[in-house]
Specification:
With 123 residues, the chain is mainly α. It has one domain. 50% of the residues lie in helices and 0% in strands. It contains two helices and no strands. It is rod-shaped and about 105 Å long. The model is unreliable at 75-90 (pLDDT under 50).
Length: 123
């Protein structure tokens, strides 16, 4: 006699797939706030680093100019009537004074500021 072989298809049922998808969705919902918190901490660290760079640039400027702080406004320059320098009405001269020491435009931008764009930086 010949044995009858029953072939069974291997695979997942629809219920098993739905259960796995539901578990993944629950885990994702739990982890999203953790990732958002980590992103906020990274932005805070980046902002603190930017402030440190600006402070170091200011210290280097004052060291090079006999402990004199950079002027924030100058007279006799275009735009001096409103107290600002020559670049744009939104960029005080102090930013231009310490720029050679900082050498990066990105330090003038807070990463947490969603309203600021590259064109609205101080320089």
């Amino acid at each position: 006699m010949k044995a009858i072989s029953v072939s069974r298809r291997s695979g997942f049922t629809l219920i098993e797939l739905l259960v796995v998808i539901a578990i993944i969705a629950i885990l994702a919902a739990i982890l999203f706030p953790v990732f958002a918190s980590a992103r906020d901490k990274a932005r805070q660290a980046s902002c603190a680093s930017n402030l440190k760079q600006l402070g170091l640039g200011l210290i280097q400027y004052t060291s090079d100019y006999d402990d004199t702080m950079p002027m924030n406004w100058m007279s006799g320059l275009p735009g001096a009537g409103n107290g600002y320098g020559t670049a744009t009405p939104a960029s005080p001269l102090i930013f231009w004074a310490i720029f050679p020491y900082v050498k990066a435009v990105g330090v003038y931008h807070c990463p947490s500021d969603a309203t600021a764009s590259a064109s609205s930086l101080c320089l």
